Amino acid sequence: VRQKNVKNIMLKNLLDACGGAIGFYTIGYAFAYADNASDSKTFIGNKNFLLLSFEGSGGDWIGWFFQFAFAATAATIVAGTVAERCQMAAYLAYSLFLTGFVYPVVVHSIWSGDGWITAFRDDPWQGVGVVDFAGSGVVHMTGGATALVAAIILGPRKGRFYDEDGNPLETPHNFPPHSVALQVLGTFILWFAWFGFNPASSLAIDNSGSAETAALCAVTTTLAAACGCVSAMFTDTMIEKSSTGEVSYDLTMAMNGALGGLVGITAGCSVVTPWAACIIGIIAGWVYIGFSKFLIKMKIDDAVDAIPVHFANGMWGVIAVGLFAEPDLMATAGYNDFPGIFYGGKGELLLCNFVSIVWICAWVFFLMTPFFVVLNVMGMFRVDPLEEEVGLDISHHRGAAYDMSGAKKEDVEELMEVRASKHGKVEVPKEVANAAEETTA
User: Fold this and answer.
1) Does residue 277 contact residue 224 with C-beta atoms inside 8 Å?
2) What pLDDT digit, counting tens, does each position of 78-100 carry?
3) Could you tell me the pTM of the whole model?
4) Are the beta carbons of 353 and 371 closer than 8 angstroms?
5) Distance of CA 337 to CAs 83, 155, 393, 431, Å?
6) Number of other CB atoms surrounding residue 4 within 10 Å
């Protein structure tokens, strides 16, 4: 984001954790996971509101904490997409609604033992159920689909696709970020944190099978991210070379390509081999580029390209399981040993995972479209145009994130006079004089 909106996006990231914790504690976890004594398939959970039914075991507490992190992740995807123009009240409303109800129902259907398309039953649908080990669909598609709806209804930032008179720009305007260094640091932090999502989705390492699964997840996660980074950056370079004759290497493409690879491998990190992880990562880089360009063509403004990374590559990750799942690894990871298409599978697994894509899209679009439309009609969604132009830090958070003021010109002149009186004539360094003049101006 730009310098004038740093406080705003930082606060929203902080409140993602806070809102996610509150929403998932009060009702979200209960809707996501239910202890169904009848062993029947259910649409939504109905037990453990406020965690009141917990027996107090360490497994219960750490289970809630781990799942809360996933819920907060789904919410924070949306924050990046609608950055620089979304009201704080709207942000809090959708964050609580997403983590408290929308996301938990998706979780229940796929990860709960009572879910209607879950793989964790004795009688899963199509004999295998949906295989989404760490959440390419459950987490990233859900957050990405919400972000897509929000971006369409909220509209683009001022000056992104249209000039001040509302005329389409020949070339969309790119807003430079306030700190590329922080972007790179954030990418590395996310990459490292992914090892807490994918390998840790083994939930325990208490036997050789779970240890093997966790170790494999670490390897496939690393390879997919690396291949996604290289794929996106060099593909973009080749596209530029063919269209303009010039060659450059886009850091943003590299960073988002790596994140796309991470999202793409998340569903199948425990059931695909390292060579398949490389292919998934390479294709993830292409998916990111293609969907990013599609959004621009459709004039949908995603401030951080979260939709191509999470929504598009979430879909690709879920599909990839149906293609590359290796039967022995499926069994080791706790699933029925149905193979992917490239291992002789007949398509049952691919069908289950495709249905999960349709289900997540339908559920999220059905709920979040009217939700955002109502916020927009009530004037609670988008900030005032003048506030957007000035920046949300000043208009909503009591001042800019960075103090860019320098020394006053008269103070610099006084300092030079004092030094001159002690040491003879002293010239004011040119850069100091310029900085003082800019501050005074």
Assistant:
1) yes
2) 999 999 999 999 999 999 999 99
3) 0.92
4) no
5) 43, 45, 53, 69
6) 20
